[in-house]
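Margin note: ligand = magnesium ion.
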Amino acid sequence: MADSAAAPPKPSSSVKLVLLGEAAVGKSSLVLRFVNNDFQENKEPTIGAAFLTQKSHLPHRTIKFEIWDTAGQERFASLAPMYYRNAQSALVVYDLTKPTSLVKAKHWVAELQRQANPGIVIALVGNKLDLTDENAAASGGASTSEGSDAEGAETPETSGDARKISTKEGRAYAEEEGLLFFETSAKTGVNVQEVFTAIANAIPETQMKGAKGPGAAGAGAGQTALGSERVNLNQRAEGAKEGCAC
Amino acid sequence: MGHDGEESLATSEGEEELANDRRTSPPRDRDDESTIRGVKEEGAGASPKEESSTISQARSNSPETEQEYRPPLPPRPSNFGLLREGSYSPGSSLQRSKNTSRPHLQSTATTALSRTDIHTQSYQDGSRETFAASAQTTPPSKAIAAFGSIKRIKGFSGSEGGDSGSVRSYAPTLETGGDVESLLGEVLGASQESPAWRLHSTQNEAPDPFDSITYEDDETTVDFYREFDEISAVAADGENEEQLLNQWKSKRKHFLILSSAGKPIYNRHGDDNLISGYIGIIQTIISFYEGAHNQLKGFTAAGARFVVMSQGPLYLVAISKLGENDPQLRVQLEALYMQILSTLTLPNLTHMFSNRPSTDLRRPLQGTEPLLSALADTFTRGSPPTLLSALECLTIRKSHRQVINDTLLQTRCETLLYGLIVASGRLVSVVRPRKHSLHPSDLQLIFNMLFEARGVKAGGGENWIPLCLPGFNKNGYLYMYVSFISAYESIGEEEHERVNESGKPDDIAILLISANKESFYDLRKMRDALVDELEANGSMAIVRSAVRRGRPTATDIVPGTVLRHFLYKSRANVQFTMPSYEPSFTTLLARRRLLSLYHALHASVHAKNAHLKVHHCISRESISLAWVTPLFELYCVAGPQASRNALAQSANKVIQWVRKEEERVFIIGGAVSLNSLDRCTIYKKLTPPAARYSEQI
Ligand SMILES: Nc1nc2c(ncn2[C@@H]2O[C@H](COP(=O)(O)OP(=O)(O)OP(=O)(O)O)[C@@H](O)[C@H]2O)c(=O)[nH]1
Ligand SMILES: [Mg+2]
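Resulting structure:
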């Protein structure tokens, strides 16, 4: 909704994207960075899931992301199929400083490969790069100057290297499974835009849903564009069998 | 009678004088409350027999005609003359200077009248016990000093303290109260005087205490401002432990939740390592009584009231030094328990513990802590909706609300169960199925999640939230679509930023609840249609401007009133209304003190044996009034300089105002045609509540 200024008539299409990963790895923070270019030091856990949209202007077209930011907590896991069922892309996020989060990420990748759209584009994302040694070098150029960045500077972790999962390990797994791979920091902004752009580029144009009426600003935004998809989704939804919500 | 038939508060010179007498009564009986507050009190247990000579007799004889009741001719003209004078022309009684002292007034007929109905007392049973222990530890000099200061302020000479019939010896809740006290006295650090006293008495020299709170910067005040500060983690070497424990002990309010096996589940302050010892002690005490088939309900130690609630496999404990009484604390614990059910559902909770009694509930509850803490902090700051078990509505014209109701109905989709529009924590409109009510306790959880906890709103998107609404059904989940609309859309971005910074939760939320977890897109479509329509028919602009306008101040409502603040609860509607906290109660502390006063008033009129209809409380800081009828509860507060007559007069004005504005300040159905609808009906005429805390909408 932020980009209400209508772009010149570039072809525009929408991409459904879902974020999955262990609790507190930074899924919501990545979305917040992508959508609002902002960061919050103590972000509260997501309850259920949040739905956001964001336009991304590529050289030859405009992509409208429809993003499902899911909660990482176990008790919401059974709801996940509802969010990835129709997704064309997924960000599977882990925390570079937390080994269990990569294990969890691998589970999600396996589940997506088994149950999501066959053509789904998956990006494996190791987040919290700012807590590792590469932080200084990497964030220098890409960092967007924000008030929140300055505040974060005092966190004790920034001094040492808290990395627990090497780049090599993450990349090797991603290549094995045919995933896009990034290491990011939602805090500094490093590589965040890049992940989304890479996803947009990786989705074949034929798979994208055309959105003729670019949403006008305000409340009614996206209504027409979404209408057709909703019908689509509901058809599939009715056929699906789900476990309990817990 | 030339009376307009409205129920009005009778006041009289005699009462006024009596009040003055009480203010000046010497501390002959160092009763516990007197020590705390410096309020001279009269027995809560005023014998029911005495009630027969009061105005409340007339009222309570025919409660069903409450609203239009005209007092019958009195049996004792002399008394009634006073009453009537008060209700006819209350101003006349103001002519007498309130400094007049009449030491022997209590022997007159007027005294008899007042004693029975208009009580000047501050606390009811629960809190009485709360303070009893602290009174025991209070050095006599302190108590005397307190009264000394009252005298100084009022410039009265002492009169007889004849109304000391209420002095009660402290009866401990527990047979072994003494032991427990010493045990926990150590735990909590036996402070030598009640912190509640200190919290309430930082202003004893100021003529207008509520006003000057902002300038007050003594230890106590600062203390309360630190109430919500985080306690950091215990260092590896344990070096900072003592300092952290002191910090922990300085908190005025604690909530602990543990499993009956003693596993910590939630605590508001400090991490597990820091307080594990205390958790162990509490668990031991509770299970000791459980073992003896004698459930522990509460006890007092070191100026703190401990209230224990056992809910299936859980123990919930509230520790308060804020002077709340047991029923009030229980309501708070109940809310925390409801939040846990809301996360897990009852079958899940029982299942986990029946499978494994040693279950660590922290894991399944992960992510619920911010919601529990938001609730806890709301209670610590003081919360009128929780105190009154009622909710507040956004004030708009009846016809405007009608349009919004209709729009909700027109746009509602098949899967919708409940649809709500909420603006800055106040209800604007509701659609619900005919057969299903909405519990205030459920709404409290939802409002807490959306307006107190930051998580959902900070996300900035639309939300799809599975949650159990225990009041609706403890056994399963519902799914809630939430989207926020700024109330400041029409104002420039910049100003919006500014307003947000001040931390006001001034957003408008559209909440659409369904039992179908796949219905997100349906509800989203409904939301779009609803908002489009509300924008088109001008309703959104009306709601926005009502939100921006905020609550009127007390003087907006009753011009020239002595009232600083009031709470009016419509019992039939399970709703309440109140003026803005501005200008007198803007600070955290001032607001807490106001709420403490409301808690005390509420306690006195809700005591089990209370026959009170009207209850006055006069202290050095304020003069206040509680007035309860089957239709409403009114609590009002004026500055200490105000006369009782002026207060009563204002109370009557508030009643008149509510009567006039009733269909704006409350949601009262009836206008929407329900004939064509089979599944949903607009939040219509609400069922009058049977019991106090099981009220439904
Ligand atoms: N240092 C650092 N902290 C981060 C980064 N990203 C997120 N965080 C912090 O990690 C915590 C969790 O972030 P969230 O974005 O809420 O994590 P999440 O994956 O959405 O968590 P759930 O919603 O519970 O699944 C927050 O306190 C963030 O401030 C990052 O790149 N660097
Ligand atoms: Mg999140």
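The radius of gyration of chain A is 18 Å.
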